[in-house]
Amino acid sequence: MADRHEQLASLAGLDDAAFFDDPVDLITYRRDTSSYAPGKPEGVVRPRSPEAVVEIIKRANRDKLPVYTRGGASMYAGGVNPEHGGIVLDMGGLNRILDIDLDRGIVLCEPGVRFGALLSALKPHGQTVGLVPSTAPTATVGGAASAHALGTGSPQFQSFGDEVAGLEVVLANGERVQTGSAASSHAGYFQRYCIGPDVTGLFLGADGTLGVVIAVALWLHPLPPDRETVCYGFPDAGSVQECIMEIQRRELVNNIWYAGAYEAPTIQTRISQAFPDKPLDDLPSFALAVDYRGEAHHIEEDESRIAEIAERCGGAHFPDFNEAYFNKLRNEEIYWYSFAGFFAISRCAILMSSVPTDKLTAFMDVIGQQRKNFPQYPLGAAIVMCRRGLHGGALAFYDEASQWQDANEAISECARALVAAGCVPYKSGKVWAEQVASFGPYSSLLKQLKKELDPNGILSPGDLGLATPN
Amino acid sequence: MTATDKASELPHLTNYLKDLYHCSDCGYCVDAIWEERDIDHICATLESHSPGLSYSGQGYIKTARAWVEGEDLPLASVSEHAFTCTSCGNCERICPIGMRPMEINRALRSELIARDLAPESAVAIQKNVLEQQNPAGAPRAARYHWAQNIETAERAELVYLPGCASAYARPQEAQAAMRLLQAAGVPVKILGDSDSCCGAPLRELGFSDDAARQSEQLGAALAKQSFNLLVTSGCECAHALANEDRQTSFAGWLASALTEGKLQLAARSSTPKVSCIESCQATLGAVPNDNQTLYDILGRLGVTVNGGAPTSRFAMCCGAGGGAPAMHPQSSTEMARARMREATAKGQPDAIVSIDPRCVAHLDAARSDGDPPVYGLAEFVDTHFHLSAEGN
């Protein structure tokens, strides 16, 4: 086998791909926005065509060279950090929108398309996509598919994966596979669940461990004509939990583009910033903030029902929080900055989990316990309502110059505690690898699939607790 | 991942330690797209020089951090990367948490300069400024050749400062500015032999001490003059002289003159259709954003602007800044070509206009056959309008 230098040199000579191995060029490809330890890439390849991706993967597989596929690297799970060296496959050059098919309601994109570009391209058609992550200006469609994006659209559509109609993937042996209805070369993308098992799902949230996504077909949705934001205040986490469960049971989520729950410190900070003279003592301990979008009369009906539910659960309209924060956040679309805003004080380690709605209080208890265990890190909670269940983020603010290692230990402990409380990993990458590997038969099946699809273990080794390179 | 003793050997970078450890890799300074904020990629270097992310604001921060953490970096490569930035400042404008990638890159440059690792072309610019008082190295004695046939006043209350770009690379702009000032009935004087480079080109390159001395030198020359208004054409000069409270840009002066009725302008023929190319320098620091002033003036004059009026705070750099034309002529020309393509994409204009003479000279040099002419603001007005003073 060629030595590493020769392996990299063979990639440097590829048509239709830029190659970098200068140490200064590699510095920027060591990590994503997570607190997870940076890796050490030996080269970066930036393909400009699917054919180039195939050739890169074939050569990497032949040479057993690890490949970490990277989109916008705006994820916070360390998935793209090349901890076993090898190359980073920078998909930013594959950024064409291949087709907007209004008849089928499908948009087909290359994986490096930024959400910002996608939304701009769809807007003139009066269309949008179901799920838009809060990292949208920099996040890529391929990254969202590979790492289970969430955010705007989660109440209505659940997860980014649920909005994928099909994929085109390059397997470790260099074979190109189209999934869903497009598996039949005459059909193209129009349905995901057909032919046989849902092969598309194999690659969603897989962090590039089973294949490299080179095209993503997404369902289109009409841009909603009207929008309104409303906030409700609650005395405690239990009452907001009851309220969300009732909303989900009655499926009053079809006109909710985004809904988040906010705890007391956030409420107090936002209110005191906007209304310095307001007393903070009688503020609610929890807020549920809802961004309704749809037809005005549907919004009105749903809002009225949800207000009733909130009241029954001990809540009430909370217009101050809406005015002070949430309306501005959503209507001025600064929620995309809110992701970065997490980092306004300091670097921030984020651990995303899926939380059953009936475990919201348990999730908050874990956060509370972690605050006691790690008082040196201001710890926050971010809660996003989904069609079913919740996404819960644990946020640890830390000084990267002096607390990086300790902060990662705190996040690891938090991960263990969340699983014990009934939550599960979301956006797994490497930060949840220990937990994913512990899920007995599931993990075992995952390993078998990995062995079959990537026998040399070259694709994103270490992610999801899967194989290191052979 | 912590700063080491190495940090004490890097005094320019240690000023930014907090930023180096706070940057969160969100990627806004790399290649963000956000229509509602008028953001569609922001880094001309990434677009036209190399797609390698280490050429971005994020890349400069990470490189600086690796250096202060004691990594054994190939400094020649660090130099090649650091001296590619055009200093447009988009990475700082877009950063949601107030990081300063451009300033950090300047600190990187200063560290490299201290180790004699600046590119020869950068050192040549330094030499040119120190010896000839302009970055191109044209003879100092030729600084006011453009004014040979223009009458100036010795006791005027208004000093016109063309800046190096207007004085040498785009003398038409300086001449036109003088004609407009005088058409408004304003006696104008110039510094003549005591004029010098404000130091902005050296500051961009990281020669911070030399830049400070240049600024002091020009300040001392101005201090010997009696005046109540200093009008500058160079956008980087306006930025460098931001502490001089009697200063205004030429665009600022023209807007005021039109508002106050001191200058009457009548179109020579039908008013042309133009595209505008924004100046990055005009959006830096404390100076007013004269890109908007340009749109306001053109609107007042009835000039049709391709693509409508609003200017983007994140317009892509034309490649004129940061010493790029001297250090990376090919990619800086490509940046200019990209801006010209963008400016003509919504229909062929009769002219392209910018308030920044440095941009005008650079764009003009990059023009191809069939491209519209490129004008500075003063040139454009002088060419397309009859000038007269109040009441005439």
Beta fraction of chain A? 15-25%
- State the end-to-end CA separation of chain A: 14 Å
Strand order of the largest sheet of chain B: 4-3-5-6
* Largest β-sheet summary of chain A: 8 strands, antiparallel
Mean pLDDT of chain A: 94
Radius of gyration of chain A: 22 Å
Oligomer: heterodimer
How many separate structural domains of chain B?
Answer: 2
Throw out a few tags for this protein.
heterodimer; A: 470 residues; alpha+beta; Uridine Diphospho-n-acetylenolpyruvylglucosamine Reductase, domain 2; Uridine Diphospho-n-acetylenolpyruvylglucosamine Reductase, domain 3; Alpha-Beta Plaits; 4 domains; 8-stranded antiparallel beta sheet; 16 helices; 20 strands; 34% helix; 23% strand; B: 392 residues; alpha/beta; Fumarate Reductase Iron-sulfur Protein, Chain B, domain 2; 20 helices; globular
Q: How would you describe the overall organization of this protein?
A:
The complex is a heterodimer of chains A (470) and B (392). Chain A has four domains: 4-92 and 452-465, Uridine Diphospho-n-acetylenolpyruvylglucosamine Reductase, domain 2; 95-222, Uridine Diphospho-n-acetylenolpyruvylglucosamine Reductase, domain 3, CATH 3.30.465.10; 226-340, Alpha-Beta Plaits, CATH 3.30.70.3450; 342-433, GMP Synthetase, Chain A, domain 3 (2-Layer Sandwich). In chain A, 34% of the residues lie in helices and 23% in strands. Chain A has helices at residues 4-12, 23-27, 50-63, 115-122, 141-146, 154-157, 200-203, 237-249, 264-274, 296-312, 319-331, 335-341, 360-373, 404-420, 433-437, 440-453; strands spanning 17-20, 43-47, 67-70, 87-90, 97-101, 106-109, 127-129, 132-133, 151-152, 164-170, 176-178, 212-222, 226-234, 256-263, 286-294, 316-317, 347-355, 379-385, 390-398, 424-425. The mean pLDDT of chain A is 94. By secondary structure, chain B is α/β, with parallel strands linked by helices. Helix content of chain B is 45%, strand content 10%. In chain B, 56% of the residues are buried. The mean pLDDT of chain B is 92. At the A-B interface, helix 2, helix 4 and helix 12 of A face helix 2, helix 3, strand 1, strand 2 and helix 5 of B.
